[in-house]
Design a protein that fits this description.
This protein is an alpha+beta fold. It has four domains: about 350 residues, Rossmann fold; about 130 residues, Glucose Oxidase, domain 1; about 100 residues, Immunoglobulin-like; about 190 residues, Jelly Rolls (Sandwich). The chain contains 14 helices and 48 strands. It has a seven-stranded parallel sheet, sandwiched between helices. A seven-stranded mixed sheet has the order 13-12-18-14-15-16-17, sandwiched between helices. It has a five-stranded mixed sheet with strand order 23-30-29-25-27, with no helix packed on it. The longest helix is centred in the middle third of the chain and has 18 residues. It is globular.
Length: about 800
Amino acid sequence: MRQLPNVLSVHRDRVSKPDTVDSPEFLGLSGRNGVWAQHGGPRKAGKGIVVGVIDTGIWPENPSFAGDRPVGRVPGFRGKCQIGERWTRSDCNSKVVSARYFIEGYGEDNIANHEYVSPRDGDGHGSHTASTAAGNHGVKVTIDGQSFGRASGMAPAARIAAYKVCWAAPDPDNDGCTDSDSIAAINRAVRDGVDVLNYSISGTQDFLDPVELAFLGAAAGGVFVAASAGNNGPFRSTVAHPSPWLTTVAASTHRLFQGAVVLGNGKSYVGAMISDDAVSESRIVLSSRVAKPDADPGEASLCYLGTLDRSKVRGRIVVCDRGIIDRVEKSAAVERAGGVGMVLVNPAPDEGEVADFHSVPTVHLDNVRGAKVKKYVRNAGRSARASLNPSARDKTKVPQIAGFSSRGPLPGAVGDILKPDLSAPGVDVIAAVAPPTNEGRRWNSYSGTSMSSPHVAGLGALIQRQRPGWSPAMVKSAMMTTAYNLAGQKGPFVQGAGHVRPRRFLDPGLVYDARFDDWWRLLTGQRSASNTNQASIAIGDLVGPESVLRKVTNVSTVSERYTASVKGMRGMDVQVSPRRFTVAPGLTKRFTVSFTPTDDSQYKKYATGKLVLTGNRGHVVRSPMVVQPLEVVAPDEVSGSGANGSQTIRGIAGFTGQLNLAVTGLEGAVPQAGTATVGANPFAAPIASHTVPAGTAVARFDLDSQDNADDLDLYIAVGNTLVALSATGAADEQVTLTNPPAATYDVYVDAFAASGGPTSPYTYTGWVVPNTDQGNLTVAPDPVAVQAGERFSYTATWAGLAPGERHFGFVRYVGARERTYVTIN
């Protein structure tokens, strides 16, 4: 298919994972002076707007989705109530105006028995996100007999259109949502006429990903899209959904459900606790010390079901480690063994504490406080006592970023886009769920960026109701430029522009608008990502002075004079031109922001800060900025052929002076031919093994398919441990390990697909390159005279290479981290 002239690209179908009682009050929506009251009350909040939710479906019996029947006409909307298993047209109403399901990609034969082949929610995730975005106002919430007040979506008057694309499998590890089903749902939602889409599903870091491109079509059609940033924090460069045409949402805290474990020595430690049931003073024990004789010690410390000895647990509070299994399974194990309470302890920092609904009252502690509790229990032995106090609180400020929320910066070419865009509540959010998979509960507390995204989707509906002429980019800009900083750990790669602030976003003063033409120029290389108009600025590879262009439009009713200033940006000289400008209502003003590294700039380290446009009528427009200065920008790879030859290599320097070069390699290797069979076990035997000694500079594993229409995957293992892989939808795959640990590396090949039959022929080459210059590759001139921001070049010349071998090595730029790999065929 890739070879057909009318096919732009071919992508393997990927399976992704589906990544608030008081949040309206926290966000300033409810109350006499809240945003709803200022614009007609909750009965008009989002009225006339349809919010599409692409997720696990919806549970229509929940009162958050109650409405009148029949559905009636929704102006401009052409949805459908698709019948299916336990779903009839009467399950739609004036709130849930459309419901469809998409299963062709996932496959009906692959779903679990408890799943529904219909729009009905078989998980709870989709109902949770839908009710968070646009659930009914004032719904009474009671969970396990405990009252949590009344719930409301962000836009309670908006309609909901459910698009089910995520499915439960017999093995929960195989639950997910295929790209093809998601794309079909996105395209269908746009044709149906939704105004907003929420996508609380994991994604890639590539804006050329087919799902991201489907959202491009949605945004071009005027649909505001909110997507979850991902739950792979606190690690760097884990954020998903990089596209500038959608709003990527991080998760932060809003309300803290807290309680404390009070120890017999008088010390008290506060953690996450949602139960209002206290536990009087009781013995407290470590789960590892009350295990059954035949229990696995590791499983006992994690409180697996069936590992705890009832005779040692009955009537006691049990300390369990977090990890591996669901948190609520641990408290179920404690209850089954007769325990009266649990202290759940994080074994590692930055994991976050979660207020789940547990089988016994539970306090969830971080690793520091948890270690102190464990130390007390070990030292006190049989005299260790504790109680659980659900009314205890500490002075933790909110909002703070959730430990699990994925961070930037985006890697590679997309480093010129800043993600996430902003943050919203995503921890301990109470909303509607599907009772069968939530222990019979109609509501439950979930945490994740899946929960923060629908907050922003619902708020987008609120804006669209009040500002119907605004484009999706304008809606996003208004949210970003009026956001505020989180407490605790913050910064653009953590929070984006900051926490969403509804009290300000309907009157932002200026907005950064963008349309399809702007994004198309980005995709086709006519415009850099840095110069794509948006309410943030990112330059991932600054070498010498660079300027970016921005355009702002006055969306207020009066002319206003703005003055630009810069906050932060250490090691960077930042100039805005013009620094002062006046914009009349409805008109647009262009300005440039120029960046020049100063003497105290730090290479390969981002300078962060904000561009602030302050108006003389009270508007303040804030945009986060991130800029990374580099010593050198040079090609990652070059290639040549023949026993003798040369090639010119060009780059750009970030400084003025002498750039020294150093050669490693070239190492020769004989290519080996092989054949992989579709459906065969790829790990039955390695196709090659490489002994890598200590001090190796680089190991390269290169797989070339003989048919570009095939799809091969490459896996590298040490013993039974997978250490690296390359499993794209392309025919060829490659893995490069720099400074690899000494070991024997086994190479495995999987034929995912073959166009010409059951087998796929390939050529494999593996190199283990010692940290030496082998004399067969020279570079000149060396050193190279360079000027900051200017291009430089040098010539790499190879000679005397052995016939029948491919050769590999690299040129290192001394003093910089960059290198250019050289392959001679």
